[in-house]
């Protein structure tokens, strides 16, 4: 697909700075494949590493009337033994590896594609003023496809992590087979709409806030560009900007995340919106925001590490870290 889009020759990015590919950089198929591999590395490892926090968050969201806070959720889980800390780790690793591949890799593709169209229509200076819109559209487009890859694994993960003990398999293979046998394709994709509602706003914030935070730090605080500093310093700025973006992501996407967790927890038969209305009506006051604190901790750390790992991977290959400053000259 990428070969058909961009051909066999290198693509000169015409996108607005500070997008990757500015300043005359050349992006070919090899570049995009490296970015996709970096996304696998960044998302698969980090999401798997925070599985224990994710389980606490999911339990709070799934049983808001029984569990009043992180302490209650932790004590309830801990009573069943230490094995709970790895529940759902394999579907998490596989699903978020696929998602990371599309999220980061396709973002680079769409950023160059949309940026090139904008510049060809409006010119370089005008295109630069629309860079935030380019980041938003590119990340939304990438996440749309990323969620299609993620959804089946996320559905299985949620069921493993939130089902009462003894009612659902706790390992990936049997859990996948049970969903497939009992619900078919609907069991894997019934949550795609709430997943899009959760992940697309989340990813827009993740990329837009990151890109603009990097730009703000270098332009308004350091009065320099990434090229003026070494690799270690640049990766430090990457982590800081990623963490800030992660906190914003958690706040924006948490209500949809709560509904997604509750929706995937049980077998549903009615129309999507009717089921969502029932779930919301059954929640206590503030139920949509249950699990927010662990999610802020999880997503802030997660996003900072993802960006750090992704840019570490890019710089290891001799590519520039994500985000720079100033319009193309």
Describe the protein's topology.
Blueprint lengths: L1 H5 L4 E2 L13 E2 L1 H21 L1 H12 L7 H9 L10 H34 L1 H6 L1 H32 L9 H12 L1 H5 L2 H30 L9 H35 L6 H10 L10 H25 L13
Antiparallel strand pairs: 1-2
InterPro entries: MCP_dom_sf, MCP_transmembrane, SLC25A3/Pic2/Mir1-like
Keywords: Membrane, Mitochondrion, Mitochondrion inner membrane, Repeat, Transmembrane, Transmembrane helix, Transport
Membrane topology: Multi-pass membrane protein
- Mean of all residue-level pLDDT scores: 81
Corresponding CATH architecture: Alpha/alpha barrel
For the sheet with most strands, the description reads: 2 strands, antiparallel
Helix content: over 70%
**Quick one: how many beta strands?**
2
* CATH domain topology: Mitochondrial carrier fold
Query: Count the helices. How many?
Result: 13
Q: What topology, given as strand order, has the largest sheet?
A: 1-2
């Amino acid at each position: 697909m990428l070969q058909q889009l961009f051909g066999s020759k290198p693509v000169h990015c015409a996108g607005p700075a500070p997008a990757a590919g500015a300043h005359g950089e050349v992006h070919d198929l090899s570049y995009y494949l490296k970015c996709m591999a970096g996304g696998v590395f960044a998302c698969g490892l980090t999401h798997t590493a925070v599985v224990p926090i994710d389980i606490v968050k999911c339990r709070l969201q799934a049983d808001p009337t029984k569990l009043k806070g992180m302490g209650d959720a932790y004590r309830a889980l801990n009573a069943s033994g230490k094995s709970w800390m790895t529940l759902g780790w394999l579907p998490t690793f596989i699903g978020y590896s696929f998602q990371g591949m599309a999220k980061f890799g396709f973002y680079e593709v769409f950023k160059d594609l949309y940026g090139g169209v904008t510049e060809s229509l409006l010119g370089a200076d005008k295109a630069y003023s629309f860079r935030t819109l380019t980041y938003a559209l590119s990340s939304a487009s990438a996440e749309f496809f990323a969620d299609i890859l993620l959804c089946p694994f996320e559905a299985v993960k949620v069921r493993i992590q939130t089902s009462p003990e003894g009612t659902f398999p706790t390992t990936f293979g049997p859990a996948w087979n049970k969903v497939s046998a009992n619900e078919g394709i609907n069991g894997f994709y019934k949550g795609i709409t709430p997943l899009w509602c959760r992940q697309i706003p989340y990813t827009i914030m993740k990329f837009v806030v990151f890109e603009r935070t990097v730009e703000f730090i270098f332009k308004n605080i350091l009065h320099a560009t990434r090229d003026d500093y070494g690799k270690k310093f640049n990766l430090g700025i990457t982590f800081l900007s990623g963490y800030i973006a992660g906190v914003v992501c958690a706040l924006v996407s948490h209500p949809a995340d709560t509904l997604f967790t509750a929706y995937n927890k049980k077998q549903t038969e009615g129309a999507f919106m009717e089921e969502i209305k029932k779930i919301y009506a059954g929640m206590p006051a503030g139920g949509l925001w249950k699990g927010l604190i662990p999610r802020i901790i999880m997503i802030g750390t997660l996003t900072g590490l993802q960006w750090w790992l992704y840019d570490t991977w890019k710089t290891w290959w001799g590519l520039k870290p994500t985000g720079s400053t100033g319009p193309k000259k």
